[in-house]
Amino acid sequence: YLETRTWADLKVSTALRAVFWPSAAAMHVEYFRWPYAEGESCRAVRISEEAYRKLCAFIEESFQRDPGGRVQLIPGKGYGTTDNFYEGTGSYHAFNTCNSWPVRGLKKAGVRTALWSPFVGGVLRHLR
Predict the structure, then answer these.
(1) Do 119 and 68 touch, CB atoms closer than 8 A?
(2) What does 59-75 look like in DSSP terms, one character per residue?
(3) Measured between alpha carbons, how far is 121 from 35 in angstroms, rounded to an integer?
(4) How far apart are CA 54 and CA 72, in angstroms?
(5) Conformation bin of residue 14: beta by default, left when phi > 0, alpha when psi is -120 to 50
(6) Considering all CA atoms of the chain, what is the largest pairwise distance in Å, rounded to the nearest integer?
């Protein structure tokens, strides 16, 4: 999905590979100004300090590190000037998608969310 910014960019070959062949995981990081307005793709969630620590640890553990402990940028693969891709841990497949990842992180922080969500709507539906 390094080349798939939107659903319109999705190729059939990419979708088939994603469903049937696990691939290396990547972390797509977007940089926003704070405060970021809540909306269709963003919800505020109030959590305790301990839950926040658990969520941060989950995020930190999702980045692959070099021997010096630094996250590993995938050069030239961001969609623009406000994002980057980094090497991730684990693998990407039909049951471990970009929307499954935040569900697992939110669960680590004790936030009620979907059991499994291949699509963003399932992640955000519980965060009203």
Answers:
(1) no
(2) HHHTB-B-TTS-B-B-T
(3) 22
(4) 22
(5) alpha
(6) 43
Euclidean distance between CA atoms 5 and 126, whole angstroms: 25
pLDDT, tens digit only, all 128 positions of the chain: 666 666 676 777 767 776 677 778 889 888 887 777 777 667 788 899 999 999 999 999 999 999 999 999 999 888 888 899 999 998 888 777 788 888 899 999 999 888 877 766 777 777 76
* Integer angstrom CA distances of residue 58 from 36, 51, 101: 22, 11, 10
User: For 101, which DSSP code?
Assistant: H
- Look up residue 100 and give its amino acid: S
pTM recorded for the entire structure:
0.78
Quote the CA–CA distance of 109 and 88 in Å, as a whole number: 20
First-residue to last-residue Cα distance in the chain: 29
Q: Tokens 């970021």, residue? A: 36
